Amino acid sequence: YQDAIFGEVKSDKMRELKWENVQACISALQTYEKGEHASLHDFLSSTQLDNNKHFQKDRFGEDKLNLMTFHSAKGLEFPAVFLVGLEDHLIPHLKSQTKEGIEEERRLLYVAITRAMETLCLSMSRKRPHHGKLVSCNPSRFLFEIPKEILRITSCK
Predict the structure, then answer these.
(1) I want to staple 87 with a disulfide (CB 3.0 to 4.6 A). Which of 17, 27, 74, 137 is the partner?
(2) Structure confidence by residue, pLDDT tens digits, 29-86
(3) Which positions ≥6 away from 99 have C-beta within 8 Å?
């Protein structure tokens, strides 16, 4: 895996950072599996929450694109934020259809939206592949909760 990282990444600093992340992940897994309740779900949950401590502004260059989940964006801010896939069954997720689940999904979207300091772009697909077929998508119900007067709606075909 180290060869793959070093072969693909040109910057020495970025190679070292990526390799440090791999080593830290291995170390964290080894430590975690020694614990009494060593489940993958618990490990990922604790790692996700701990991950924000390691994101420092100097790691995010102005000319870089950072991809992350709504969860991992918590506590961070960016000049521009692009939220994609704002479709029903994705946000809120199809498996989060209880009242509590929908409220949690709404809260997560709010967290993601508030990461934008200057520019926010919300997007969705009209059609998406699903089990080998192209299916129509509906906008996330949460999009209808945003006041229209603060939106600029554009469409691409």
Answers:
(1) 137
(2) 887 777 776 677 677 666 654 444 444 444 555 567 778 888 888 888 889 999 999 9
(3) none
CATH no. of 62-157: 3.40.50.300
Pairing of strands 116-122, 127-130: unpaired
* pTM recorded for the entire structure: 0.59
Residue 119: enclosing H or E segment and its boundaries?
strand 116-122
Domain-by-domain residue ranges, the chain? 1-54, 62-157
How distant, in Å, are the alpha carbons of 50, 62, 64, 153 from that of 124? Answer: 30, 25, 23, 12
Neighbours of 19 (CB within 10 A): 15
